[in-house]
Each structure stands twice: as structure tokens, then as C-alpha cells.
Design brief:
- The chain has a single domain, classed as Methanol Dehydrogenase, Chain A.
- It has a 5-stranded antiparallel beta sheet, with no helix packed on it. A 5-stranded mixed beta sheet has the order 3-37-38-39-40, with no helix packed on it. A 4-stranded antiparallel beta sheet has the order 4-43-42-41, with no helix packed on it.
- The protein is globular, with a radius of gyration of 24 Å.
- A hairpin with a 4-residue loop joins strand 21 and strand 22.
- By secondary structure, it is mainly β.
- The chain has 5 helices and 43 strands.
């Protein structure tokens, strides 16, 4: 296999050979021994009887009598009852399409029979391109909303914009003036939230409002009609998220994902820049009233008694697991589902608290009326691999022999897909345990087993030396030597300092923030995924100090907050821990810059929703813009590239996806996995597409903003497609 793939890319690079990379035809799963894992969820509340629909009834708001609790009398909305949700179809009113975040549209005007006729309806440019200081730090990743005749979006540095959905003519823009020094790893804004104030009259200002979180940690609310700040929200349309966090260090605490709004409460976490220090900003989750901006509640997992703002001079618990990605809510149940990451130091856990170990890398169902946990489900025990939950969860009515069950789909970076009863957190399929390797620098702390899903995994078989690959024979030899030099005992090989260790899958997945799409019409789940390892090594503290590795708060004093453009984990100091970390993301050869493992490096798969069985699995991405030394091959050979961004599925029988590093957007037949249309984007398509309808015409939109980490061209384009006006 390795020699055939080597020959393939050699041809792609013009070095001569004739073989083609075969498609991935069947799902390969880990061969590690497994046993049943008895506990699948940990309930933090007593069970609540189900109502007639089988769903948990709404919970009335609790009294605000606990220490630090918010004053409910100051809150402008009634959280005890569900609010109206908006349907996906002509509109795309939520980041994930509809309220269940299925990234699915019932529109079918564009279908397998006519998708080849798609043409560009318009291209809109946000005007938000990196300044000289921000070069190498842009990764827009945005998906617009559509309501009525307007598209709503945020640019990479949080400029809020509305354009006409049929023409691309700008309606308004609001610039919150985010500074370059606020950029964490990337200038990213994945989306915004749309909210209708049920208490306001139709003519009232900010009856409908657009809400975003910013890189400099603010919540911004503007009138959806005019773009003017909502005067009744916080301080003239803005709420600071730095309150209770501690000293403001730009770039350390930032919001890159859209919030969820459930029962009139804006629920948000924040991205805490990984690997800097154990004394990092808190991962506290907070709820704010969507009308007034007042704090409704706070959930500090290590200090649950603190349900409001900390006392003067105090902070929420520092260094705790955070939620950097998008949550999703269930209005009827009154629950919001939070995909949590791990503690602020990813690759050493010896100083973590019991609370951190309990809640890290878990899906947490929080009661939005009170801010208290209902249940949580942990996907990694004692996570030392940065396997934080990056995907927005997806809600489905899951088919079973006993009828449909309200469920939540939870993708993970290690490739496992879990199906959980969203009322209780119980898994609808067996949760297995694999015997985890021991060793590393803290063998006494490691979990002896790790959970895996019996429903489905995107994870492939364990690596062998034969899987080591190269763009040249010398490259392949170098990679095989590095394989022999490293510690590798399969899935969950623990971090080591004596020599490098191989982490497979790497921290980009499996599934990352693009999440999955569900076609409820055909009962199909679509997931695109990465299939590359990381090559890591812990660095002893003395050596890290000699190398000058300092956390962001110390660097900010020396270089005015300038943040070097580097991959996550590539020389992170992990201050406060005995080790720093160096991560070679994607395990790229130092000779050519190409991955050390054989392609494909990414794919897209269709899964039978009811059974979890693979329907088809194909590589995603061509060699067009990939090659050694950063030189593009220009050859359209499907090799499967790393990808970043999610899929969209429609009732027209199509999956639309960009994400790969070839800068193409594709339409794939949902039943066969075959590409039936594609177009070249003006910049990298590391975003999730969306679709909508205006005056009976269906449109397809994708943000082409590029991605510094994925090394695709940076841009500020919103590219919108439609069938020709006279097409049927």
C-alpha cells in the first residue's frame, strides 16, 4: 500500500509513475481489545418524570438565594417556558441550520439532476483582510444566517454585516473595532445568533437582533434591521466577558463560536488559548439575558456554589476546562448541550483537581433555567491528548425498535460517534472500554481504560512502520526512522519526555468544529474527518526555560501582546507544569513538509443513522494545491487532504462540502458518495456551507476566507451560487 501511494503522489508531483490512489471502500476500526463500559453518564440532578411526549418537562427557575447568585428580578425574559423556534427551509436562522443543528435543508430545487448547472449568483467581499501585524493569523471559518431577505454574518475580526440575500448588496455593517492583539490562534468568527424579543412590539428597536461573541471577549447585540447597537443590551449593545476572569491579557480569552440562545438566555463559553499556563482564565460557562444582557447565571465547574459574579478581587476558578466551540439547545427540555474541552494545560495532568478530571472532555447538559448541570457524558478519561470536544452536538429524533427517542449526536476528535438520550445522557448503543497503554511521565495517573463507541467510529486501524510514506524514497526512509524513534503503543499512547510519542488520531480529529450533518429524510449521517497523526514530545521545564518558552501573559509584557503565528502546541510553555510541549501537527516531514503517513489524510463518509453502519467512505480533497516544499502539484488526483469545516445535506439528494485544502466546493450524491459538481473558490473554503431560498429561487453560500493553519489562501469572499434563472 505505501509504495502504491508513494507512486501516486510521485505522479502528482511530476516525478513519474502511473498508479492512482484508491478510494476508501470500507470502514476500518481499531482492533484494540474491548469490553463493556458500565457507566455512560453521570447525573447531577434527580430524575424528572417524562411528560406525554416522552420529554422532560420544563424546570422552573430556582431561587437566587445562593452565594453569588444573579438576581432573577433583573432578568427580562421568562425562562420557565419554551420560546418559539424558527424553521429551516427558505431561511437558515441558526448556525447549524435549524434549532437541532442538523446542517440539513428541506430545499430540493437544486438536486442531483441539475446541480451541474450551478453558477455564481454573486460574490460579496467583507473587506476584512489581515493587517501587516495580523498576517498569518486569519481563518474566517464563517457560516452566515439567513432570515427574510437578509444574510447576517460576522467577518474574521467580528465586523457584523447584513447583505441582501438575492443580490449581495450590503444593507448595513457594524464594526466593534476588535484589535489585532486580541487574536488567539486565529482571527475566526464562525457565526452569529438571531433572536426575536417576544415582549417587544413589531416596530420596536431591536425587536429582532443579531448577537455575536468577539475575539476581545464581548457580547455584541445589534438591531437586525439597521445594524445599530441595541441600547437596552448591556452598555449600549455590549457586555464584557472579562468580568470575573482576571487580568485582561489579549489573545488568551476569546470567543470564536456563535452562542446558543435557549429560553431567552444567551449561553456562551470562550476559547482559552491552550498550553500557556495552568493559571489560565477560567472555563466558566455563563448565561445572559438576550434582551438586557444581564448575567442570568454562571457555571463554574470547580466552584458550583458561585452562580453569579465573583466577589471583588476574586475570579472564577482558573485553568478549568472550557467550551470554545458552539453549543446547541433544546427549548422544550430547557437544556443546553455544552461540548467541553480539557484543562488549560493539555499534555500534563498531575496538577489537575478532581473536578477538572470529572468534567473535562465531556458533553454537559445544563439546565438553562438555573445554570445547573442535569447530566454529563465523558468521552476521554484523564485527557492528555487535547481530545477536547470541538463539534457542535446535533439533535435528532432517533429511530429505535420502540419508537423515536430524543437524542443528541456527539462526534469526537478520536473518531467515535456517540448517540445519547438527550434527556438523561444514557447511550443508546453500548459504550465499550479499550485497555489503554501505560507508561509516559505520569503512569500512576493514567486511566487503565478508555471509552469507545459501539455505534460508529471514524478511527482507522493502528499505524505500522509500513504505513510510513514519503514524497521521495529519502523522505520515506526518514519517516520510518522517526517511527522507530518514537513511543507508540496504539490508541492513547501516553505523553513521554524521553523520546517523541505518536498520537493517532491527532488533535484535529476525527471530527472537529465542522461537526456532522443529518439527512432525516433518508436516515443518513454525513461526517467528514481527518486521518493524520501528531508527533509530539514533552520538554522538561529546565530545557523549556533555556528555549525561552514563556506564557502569553509574560510575552505580552515584552512584545506588546504580539502572538506568533504557529500551530497549536508547537512549543507551548505549559507554565506551572513540569513539562512544556512540542507538537508536530499532522506529523510532517522536516525534509519536504509532507505528512509522514500515507494518504488519504481526510475523507467523508455516509453512515446509516439507525444502525451506525457505513454506507460509503471516500477520500476528500485533491492534490491540486498540495506537494512537497509547499509547491502545488496542480494535478486533480483525489488523495484525500486534511480538511476543516463541515458538511451540508439537502433534500435534493446532495451533500455540499468544501473544507479540504484544494480550495474546491463540491456537491456529492448522498446515496453514492460520488462528486457530481465542483467549483474553484477564490480562497480556502474552511467553512460550512448553507442554503436558503428567496422568491422561489434556491441559493448555496460558502465563505471562502482561507486558513493560515491549513495553509490555504486567505480571502474575504462570500460566494453564492444558484441555478440559472430560466432553469427548472
Amino acid at each position: 500500500m505505501a509504495s502504491r501511494h508513494l507512486a501516486t503522489l510521485t505522479l502528482a508531483l511530476g516525478l513519474g509513475c502511473v498508479s492512482a490512489v484508491p478510494a476508501v471502500l470500507a470502514q476500518q476500526t481499531s482492533s484494540d481489545p474491548v469490553q463493556d463500559e458500565p457507566t455512560t453518564a453521570q447525573s447531577q440532578l434527580p430524575p424528572v418524570p417524562a411528560d406525554e411526549d416522552g420529554e422532560r418537562p420544563a424546570v422552573s427557575p430556582g431561587a437566587a438565594g445562593e452565594s453569588g447568585a444573579a438576581e432573577t428580578a433583573d432578568i427580562g425574559t421568562d425562562r420557565s417556558q419554551p420560546q418559539a423556534t424558527q424553521a429551516v427551509g427558505a431561511d437558515w436562522p441558526y448556525y447549524g441550520g435549524g434549532p437541532k443543528a442538523q446542517r440539513y435543508s428541506p430545499l430540493d430545487q437544486i438536486n442531483t439532476g441539475n446541480v451541474g448547472n450551478l453558477e455564481r449568483a454573486f460574490v460579496y467581499r467583507t473587506g476584512d483582510m489581515p493587517s501587516e501585524r495580523a498576517k498569518g493569523k486569519y481563518a474566517w471559518e464563517g457560516t452566515p444566517l439567513k432570515v427574510g431577505h437578509s444574510l447576517y454574518m460576522c467577518s474574521a475580526e467580528n465586523i457584523l454585516i447584513s447583505v441582501d440575500a438575492a443580490t449581495g448588496k450590503e444593507n448595513w455593517r457594524y464594526d466593534p473595532k476588535v484589535s489585532d492583539d486580541a487574536i488567539p490562534y486565529s482571527a475566526s468568527c464562525r457565526g452569529v445568533a438571531y433572536y426575536v424579543n417576544p415582549q417587544a412590539g413589531d416596530a420596536a428597536a431591536c425587536k429582532t437582533r443579531i448577537i455575536e461573541g468577539t475575539l476581545d471577549a464581548r457580547l455584541i447585540a445589534v438591531d437586525a434591521k439597521t445594524g445599530e447597537p441595541c441600547e437596552d443590551f448591556g452598555d449600549n449593545g455590549a457586555v464584557s466577558l472579562w468580568d470575573g476572569i482576571g487580568n485582561k491579557v489579549p489573545g488568551w480569552y476569546a470567543v470564536t463560536a456563535p452562542p446558543a440562545i435557549v429560553r431567552g438566555v444567551i449561553v456562551t463559553g470562550a476559547q482559552v488559548k491552550d498550553g500557556e499556563a495552568e493559571d489560565a482564565p477560567s472555563g466558566v460557562i455563563r448565561g445572559y439575558d438576550a434582551v438586557t444582557g444581564k448575567l442570568a447565571w454562571a457555571w463554574d465547574l470547580a466552584n458550583p456554589e458561585l452562580t453569579g459574579e465573583p466577589a471583588d478581587g476574586e475570579t472564577y476558578t482558573r485553568g478549568t476546562p472550557n467550551m470554545w466551540t458552539a453549543p446547541v439547545g433544546d427549548e422544550k427540555l430547557g437544556l443546553v448541550y455544552l461540548p467541553l474541552g480539557n484543562s488549560s494545560v493539555d499534555y500534563y495532568g498531575g496538577n489537575r483537581s478532581d473536578a477538572e478530571n470529572e468534567w473535562a472532555t465531556s458533553l454537559v447538559a445544563l439546565d438553562v433555567t438555573t445554570g445547573k448541570p442535569a447530566w454529563h457524558f465523558q468521552t476521554v478519561h484523564y485527557d492528555l491528548w487535547d481530545y477536547d470536544l470541538g463539534s457542535q452536538p446535533t439533535l435528532v429524533d432517533f429511530p429505535t425498535d420502540k419508537g423515536k427517542v430524543p437524542a443528541v449526536i456527539l462526534p469526537s476528535k478520536q473518531g467515535d460517534l456517540y448517540i445519547l438520550d438527550r434527556r438523561t445522557g444514557e447511550s443508546l448503543f453500548p459504550v465499550k472500554s479499550v485497555d489503554a497503554p501505560s507508561g509516559g511521565v505520569e503512569p500512576e495517573n493514567l486511566s487503565p481504560t478508555q471509552p469507545t463507541s459501539a455505534y460508529h467510529t471514524l478511527r482507522k486501524k493502528r499505524l505500522t512502520e509500513k504505513d510510513m510514506w514519503g514524497a521521495t524514497p529519502l523522505d520515506q526512509l526518514w519517516c520510518r526512522i522517526q517511527f522507530r524513534r518514537a513511543n507508540y503503543d496504539g490508541f492513547f499512547t501516553p505523553p513521554s519526555a524521553d523520546k517523541p510519542w505518536i498520537q493517532y488520531p491527532g488533535y484535529n480529529g476525527g471530527s472537529d468544529w465542522g461537526s456532522v450533518s443529518v439527512d432525516p429524510k433518508n436516515g443518513i449521517l454525513i461526517a467528514n474527518y481527518n486521518d493524520v497523526p501528531n508527533y509530539n514530545r514533552l520538554i522538561a521545564r529546565k530545557k523549556a526555560d533555556e528555549m525561552g518558552l514563556k506564557p502569553i501573559n509574560e510575552r505580552a509584557k515584552e512584545d506588546n501582546g504580539s502572538i506568533p503565528a504557529k500551530a497549536e502546541g508547537a512549543g507551548d510553555p505549559q507554565a506551572g507544569a513540569p513539562y512544556a510541549i512540542d507538537v508536530n501537527a499532522g506529523w510532517r516531514s522536516s525534509l519536504t513538509g509532507m505528512p509522514c503517513t500515507e494518504p488519504p489524510y481526510g475523507g467523508i463518509t455516509a453512515i446509516d443513522l439507525a444502525s451506525g453502519e457505513t454506507l460509503w467512505d471516500e477520500p476528500l480533497g485533491e492534490a491540486l494545491r498540495n506537494g512537497p516544499f509547499g509547491i502545488a502539484s496542480r494535478l486533480p488526483l483525489t488523495i484525500g487532504t486534511p480538511n476543516n469545516g463541515g458538511p451540508l445535506t439537502t433534500a435534493g439528494g446532495l451533500v455540499f462540502v468544501a473544507a479540504a485544502t484544494d480550495d474546491l466546493i463540491r456537491a456529492i450524491d448522498v446515496k453514492t458518495g460520488k462528486v457530481v459538481w465542483q467549483d474553484q473558490l477564490p480562497a480556502g473554503g474552511q467553512a460550512t456551507p448553507m442554503t436558503y431560498e428567496v422568491d422561489g429561487r434556491q441559493y448555496l453560500a460558502i465563505s471562502a476566507g482561507g486558513h493560515h493553519f491549513m495553509e490555504t489562501p486567505v480571502g474575504d469572499y462570500l460566494v453564492v451560487y444558484a441555478l440559472p434563472q430560466n432553469a427548472s
